[in-house]
Design brief:
The chain is of the alpha+beta class. Helices cover 33% and strands 31% of the residues. The chain has 2 domains: 76 residues, Helix Hairpins (Orthogonal Bundle), CATH 1.10.287; 65 residues, Roll (Chitinase A, domain 3). It contains 3 helices and 10 strands. It is elongated and about 70 Å long.
């Protein structure tokens, strides 16, 4: 595995597992920047870190040792693969360590139907075409589309609905167009 390029935001690593060359881009968090996470996301990262350190890394080191005991490591694909996996695991462990060093746990604001949209709110919106979506406002680390559509507070949708109340209509800039959105409920 070799470092291809780096800047203040990303490291790009590349390794060859014959016949394929894999490249990985690893984001770097600034150590001086305080990270804001919910307790749920902090627990998820902490559990991932524990699993990586206690389960996956020892397993990869064991495979690396077994592969290195074979006669010629210069042409040993298992050895190269295990070494690359070890490097990627160590990079992810370092990333999570750096993130968790200076973290602030943020509490979701308790909301009622009469309050405004803020971080942690689950907002039901209706687009001008009649489509209704439930959107949860989360920190950028937590963005997903698994159960509820979770959008970052840095997104254009958040910018448009921030501090709005139930019943208000706003125009939202989406990737493909601009739509009018009505806030149906906030929880």
């Amino acid at each position: 595995m070799r470092l291809i390029t780096s800047n203040c935001n990303y490291l790009i690593w590349q390794y060859r597992a014959y016949p394929i060359i894999y490249s990985y881009t690893i984001p770097i968090m600034a150590a001086s920047k305080k990270q804001h996470l919910t307790q749920q996301w902090y627990d998820k990262l902490f559990n991932e870190l524990t699993e990586l350190r206690d389960v996956k890394l020892p397993d990869v080191i064991k495979k690396l040792t077994e592969a290195s005991e074979q006669w010629d490591i210069s042409e040993n694909a298992e050895y190269d693969d295990a070494l690359a996996r070890k490097d990627l695991l160590e990079a992810r462990i370092s990333e999570i360590d750096l993130l968790l060093q200076d973290v602030e746990i943020i509490k979701k604001k308790k909301t009622t139907a009469s309050t405004t949209v803020w971080y942690g709110s689950v907002v039901e919106v209706e687009f001008d075409d009649g489509k209704v979506e439930k959107i949860e406002i989360v920190w950028s680390w937590e963005v997903s589309v698994e159960d509820t559509l979770k959008i970052s507070f840095e997104s254009p949708v958040w910018t448009a609905i921030r501090n709005k109340k139930v019943g208000e209509k706003v125009r939202v800039r989406l990737a493909w167009s601009r739509k009018e959105v009505t806030i149906k409920s906030i929880s």
